[in-house]
């Protein structure tokens, strides 16, 4: 018994995810970017949607809620801090809460920054981490609503999970993220290898996700804002990690 994760493309560059509890057959969509893509994935797998877990309020993560809820009568779970921005939520969660999908338990973590109420879902037993737009492979989301220190602290908390945790993020941005990462950390051998792997995957039309957290710890500069190598790139050797994180995010915004 355990969790099966189905990964598929949605919209122009979103990832869609179905998570299926094999013990009970309950199936959740992680976010609701596009009804047609989710329905096609359900049909292909032969699963019936029972739940939707929402990470944040942006339209490309919630747009399909009304259609899916009307068709399947699903339970929709989402961040309490963004309840006023997301129509159709049935259950509100915040950091420290747990939600259940059949026999699978997800822990909820706060990752403010991209949006103030952004949350992520962690299946500790199965080692699956659904980070949406808080943490990407080789990057993080744009800081639309938050400030650097809380965003850094949220990301740093995820870094403490085991290296074999698998990350499932919200968008296929890995190739462009790799170019920026190499610009600030050009001598990183692990990053060079990951960039080549990503290039090959994209040329073959394959997704770059999931990726292990261990790989991200070694290659993602945003997870290493407290690393002297990254700080030195910006001349911030004596600065707090949050200041380095802010410099990284500003650098990526204009890259």
Automatic annotation (TrEMBL):
Reactions performed catalytically: an S-(2-hydroxyacyl)glutathione + H2O = a 2-hydroxy carboxylate + glutathione + H(+)
Residue numbers binding Zn(2+) 2: 60-61, 133, 171
Keyword Hydrolase: yes
Any Pfam family matching the protein: HAGH_C
Positions of Zn(2+) 1 binding: 56, 58, 114, 133
EC number: 3.1.2.6
Metallo-beta-lactamase domain location: 13-171
Pathway(s) it belongs to: Secondary metabolite metabolism; methylglyoxal degradation; (R)-lactate from methylglyoxal: step 2/2
Required cofactor(s): Zn(2+)
EC class of the enzyme, as a word: hydrolase
Note accompanying the cofactor annotation: Binds 2 Zn(2+) ions per subunit.
InterPro entries from the UniProt entry: Clx_II_MBL, Glyoxalase_II_hydrolase, HAGH_C, Hydroxyacylglutathione_Hdrlase, Metallo-B-lactamas, RibonucZ/Hydroxyglut_hydro
Subunit (UniProt): Monomer.
Protein name according to UniProt: Hydroxyacylglutathione hydrolase
Organism of origin: Devosia neptuniae
